[in-house]
Amino acid sequence: MSTTVDFPIHNPVEDILRMDRIPTIWCPGCGIGTSVNSFAYALLSTGIELKKVAIVSGIGCSGRVSGYTKMDSFHVTHGRAIPFATGLKLANPELTVVVYSGDGDLTSIGGNHLIHAARRNMDLLVVCVNNMIYAMTGGQAAATTPGAAISTTTPYGSFEPELNIAHLVDAAGASFVARWTVFHVKMLEKTMKEALSKKGFRFIEVLSPCPTLYGRRNNLADGLAAMKDYKERSKIRNGAPTHETALVQGGEIVVGKFVDRERPDYLTLMRQQLGANYHPLPPQPDENPEAGVAKEDCCSC
Amino acid sequence: MARGSVAVTTERCKGCGFCVEFCPTKVLALSSAFNAKGYHAPYMEDPDKCSGCNLCGMYCPDFAIYGYRFPKETGEPAEGKQQ
Ligand code: SF4
Ligand code: SF4
Ligand code: SF4
Known about the structure:
The complex is a heterodimer of chains A (301) and B (83).
Chain A: H1 32-46, E1 53-57, H2 65-68, E2 72-75, H3 81-91, E3 96-102, H4 103-109, H5 111-120, E4 125-130, H6 165-172, E5 176-181, H7 185-196, E6 202-207, H8 223-233, E7 234-236, E8 253-260, H9 266-274
Parallel strand pairs in A: 1-2, 1-3, 3-4, 4-6, 5-6, 7-8
Antiparallel strand pairs in A: 5-8
Helix pairs in contact in A: 1-7, 4-5, 5-6
Chain B: E1 4-8, H1 18-22, E2 28-30, E3 42-44, H2 55-59, E4 65-69
Antiparallel strand pairs in B: 1-4, 2-3
């Protein structure tokens, strides 16, 4: 339905997407793609060279983000996005490493890694798309599933209180903690931009509708209805103490930037403490194309 | 007078309606026509109100719509070949 115009129309988001992989596998009304728009604009506005950005995802619907983005992207085993990203960052500290994954992957299967990366203040940006369920594996209850919510493994409602991830990573020592929903596209973009320009462990939780596996069983079978619900229930409280931001089914959704503190990150401390004993890795082969593979490194064939 | 317009890639659309609902000036509506996968893509019901703000594009989870502003000098789409 577009009008005929004499200038090129180009959606800048396409610059960071692998367009040959689009359309995505995501269901109609799923919010993951919306969060990708905010991320794309935030990343493009920072001016960071895309060759120096790596995206790591674990398993799950949100884990597909790494496959759709046109950067060095890694889709790793369930729950292990953070340890993989940690290795990547330590081996090549120049990289901007982003972990883009879901709540089931990051907080349930990989919960331990999340705590320790926050404690170490590892220089990573972690975007956690929270749809409150294990979606891709069939709608099982996750640590983030609110109490009383119906899922395939909790047909009578869950008996467990949900995890407040923002509180957890704050307590563990993250230097930046924020939460938005995919309804807040512009605020999310701004927060992502801010987080991309900061050092240390930065955590952004993004609530996103999953009409297929969460909503359908909990009276929100339509992504649009879930979006309107976010709009109604969200309350922006920047700087709110994270222990007051628990997500309760049907209750207020506290959103905003909760924590922004300065704390030396792991690499800085490591370099300081090692002093002269710190040796950065030699340049990698592809950074010096003329060098190629040295003869003596070659096998005897 | 429209200050912008949208480009819709109909075949990528999944008919979620986010763009229709969250357009600040209520420009869009879902069409009654189907795309190849059976979804109803949006069209401009009230094109004069479009500011080209691209909020619809920000909301679209399937990268199927993009709002753009007309260049200042003309304020109107000139005749042209490009879609
Ligand atoms: S199952 Fe849920 S989270 Fe996964 S793509 Fe569908 S709506 Fe999105
Ligand atoms: S560009 Fe803005 S005004 Fe135009 S249809 Fe999209 S959201 Fe509405
Ligand atoms: S937001 Fe995108 S996928 Fe949803 S109806 Fe609009 S164009 Fe289609």
